[in-house]
Amino acid sequence: MAKTDQKSILDKDLDKIAYIEEATESTSRRLVAPGLAFLFLVLTVLLAASMVIDLPGGVLVIVAAALGAYMALTIGANDVANNVGPAVGARAISLPVALAMAAVCESAGALIAGGDVIETISGGIITPLDAESPHDFALVMLSALLAAGIWIHFANWVRAPVSTTHSIVGAVLGAAIGGIGIAPVNWSMVGSIMGGWLVSPVLSACLAAALLAFIRSRVVYQFDKIDAARRWVPRLIGVMAGAFATYLTFKGLSRVVNLDLGHALFVGLVVGVLTHALVRPIIHRQSIGLENRNQSVRQLFGWPLVGAAGLLSFAHGANDVANAVGPVAAIAHAMSAGAVSDTVRIPFWVMLIGAFGISLGLSLFGPRLIRLVGQQITKLNPMRAFCIALATALTVILASALGLPVSTTHVTVGAVFGVGFFREWETQRLGYRADTPSGRAGLRLRPIRNREEQKRRLLVRRSHVMTILVAWMVTVPSAALLAGVIRWLLSGVL
């Protein structure tokens, strides 16, 4: 009896030790990402200190570099999820591979096409005045960086993909009003940004829904799906290649190759025609032996979707790195020159901080929002995700032609909404599962038995929709208010 009791007590003690070890290991894993992020911030401070040690106002530049690195981390954790989320949700690519690919493409876009000379204020939201002192200007930029970083960090925590461009624009607006007044504010640009916020998600949603309806009509609902896919999939891939060629030459590479929209469209047309000619025999070979099923058709959209995710990440790195490092370069220039300028040259070490910070933020903190965008708003497959990617590129091109500044976050998530709500509408209208062929093809339908099955299978997650929409609506005013408060606090310290 005594031995049995001793064995029981020993087992309990061993269980307690094992539980403590598991808890310690779990806690250690949770601390790895914040620890690496903190190490990156420390290295950024050391790098900045070595570069501006003799610069007047060097302390402000060092602080700005640290805040720019923090902003880059939050951008990587939030914004990049929109580029690779649909591909991951469609299972065209695994999450680890998507993280690695996006990190490489983001860094390449930032370093190759990020530009040596950029506007110092995101979106031209304020106009530098001669009356501004470099010190006041630096405080405005510091307040904006910190406020935008905090707001995006909060959005990551509540799992809401928000526009980093709108965050920094709102923060600059609030910091400028709080520190300088309303005179430098470019109100026409503010109105243009808000107009783009209203139009772009609706436009991308409609385009994504229209593309999905077209593919269903021309391919999915045909009696011989494989034959229809051989005709239409190469054409759709050609359209996507042309759209991304136009998008990259007009937006992503705008600081390397300065082309107007007309020339960019011509480049896209040439690339689209060549791509169609190249991929047509490839798609034909891939389709040989495939069964006449929807799943077979979806497979043909897989690799183009992966390419689209990489191109979106490249363009994002080229365009959005300025949100993190533009203010840092502006502060460094203002401190060294003793005057505020509309445009500045970004030092390579500053661009390196932005590029590496975005990639590190994506790798450490990005998976949560990647899963949200790709899997939890609505169910995606390669065909639906292809429509989202193509709608994103087309929306950016159309908005640029209309002169509307848009956010890729709003555009991509709007396209996800469009695909999901189209599937709901189609199911309710026709009364059968959206993945089954139409009666027009002469095939048997599988009707939905009850509305509970419909909600479980097809309904877009309303909780995620509401969270995202509310976050979009309050991004600019929240970032502005936060930046105004930080600017007031910094005025008594720096």
TrEMBL record:
Subcellular locations according to the entry: Membrane
Coarse class of the protein's main subcellular location: membrane
Record has ATP-binding as a keyword: no
InterPro entries linked: Phos_transporter
Gene Ontology biological process terms in this record: phosphate ion transmembrane transport
Transmembrane portions of the chain: 31-53, 59-81, 93-113, 137-156, 168-187, 193-212, 232-250, 262-279, 300-318, 346-365, 385-402, 465-490
Family, similarity comment: Belongs to the inorganic phosphate transporter (PiT) (TC 2.A.20) family.
Protein name per Swiss-Prot or TrEMBL: Phosphate transporter
